[in-house]
Amino acid sequence: MSAVLITLLVLGALAVLFFVMFMGLYNGLVRARNKVKESWAQIDVQLKRRYDLIPNLVETVKGYLQHEKEVLENIAKARAGLISGQPREAAAADAQLSRGLNTLFAVAENYPDLKANTNFVSLQGELTETENAIAYARQGYNAAVLQYNNKVEMLPTNIVAAMFHFEPAEFFEVDSEEERKAVKVKF
Fold first, then answer.
1. Alpha helices (H) in 63-117, listed in sequence order
2. Nearest Cα to 41, choosing from 9, 4, 85?
3. Can you tell me whether residue 187 is helix, strand or coil?
4. Fewest C-beta in 10 Å: which of 49, 108, 127, 180?
5. Which residue from 103, 87, 106, 101 is spatially nearest to 42, judged by alpha carbons?
6. String of b and e for 85-97 (b: at least 16 CB within 10 Å)?
7. Which of 20, 22, 43 is nearest to 171 (CA)?
C-alpha cells in the first residue's frame, strides 16, 4: 500500500471518528434537554393535581369560614396563576398559593367542626401528599437542569451547544426572601 492510500485511510477514519463523536455530543445534549422538559412536565402534573384539589377543599371549607372570605379569595387568585408553563411564573403562583393554603389551615384551627369534617381531613391529607410530590418533582427538575446546563457550558459539548443554539435552562427557584426564612410556628 502506498503512503497516500494509508494517509487517506487514516484521514477517513479520523473523519468518521470525529463525526461519531460529534453525533454523540449532540445526542447527549438533546437527551439532557428532553430530560429537563420531562422533569418540568412532572412538576406540571403535580401542580395540576393540586389545582384540581383546591376547589374541593375550598367548597368543603366555605360553609365553615363565613367570615374568612379573603382567605378563600386569595387562594382562588393564586390557583388561577398556577398553571403558566414557565418555571419563574409557576414558582411565583406556587408561593402565593402555598401562603394562602397555610393561612387556610391556620384559620381552620379555629373551627373544631371543620377540623373534624372527614372531607376536610381527607382533602388536607391529599394536599399534603401532593405538596410532597411537588417538592420531589422540583428536586428532579433542578437536577435535570443542572445536568443539562453543565453539558451546555462544559467542553467539549459547549461547542456543539453553541453551534446548535442550546440555551441554558432555568432552575425552579423561590423568588421571595420570606420563603427562604425558617418557618416560625406559634401555639
1. 69-80, 87-108, 112-116
2. 85
3. coil
4. 180
5. 87
6. eebeebbbbbbbb
7. 43
For cell 463525526, name the residue: 19
Asked if residue 74 is part of any domain, the answer here is yes
Convert 166-179 to b/e letters by CB count within 10 Å (16 or more is b). Answer: beebeebeeeeeee
Checking if the pLDDT of 25 tops 90, the result is yes
Grid cell locating 33: 434537554
Size of the chain, expressed as the number of residues it contains: 187
32: left (phi over 0), alpha (psi -120 to 50) or beta: alpha
Under a CB-based contact definition with an 8 Å cutoff, are residues 107 and 65 in contact? yes
**CATH number, domain at 14?**
1.20.1440.20
CA distances from 147 to 87, 158, 169 (A): 17, 13, 10
For the CA atoms of the chain, what is the radius of gyration? 25
Query: Is 101 a member of any domain?
Result: yes
152 inside domain: yes
For residue 32, what are the domain limits? 3-180
Q: Name the residue with higher pLDDT: 68 or 89.
A: 89
Q: Using one digit for the tens of pLDDT, what is the confidence trace for 86-115?
A: 777 777 777 788 778 877 777 777 777 776
The answer to which of 61-70, 125-134, 149-158, 159-168 has the lowest mean pLDDT is: 61-70
Overall number of domains in the chain:
1
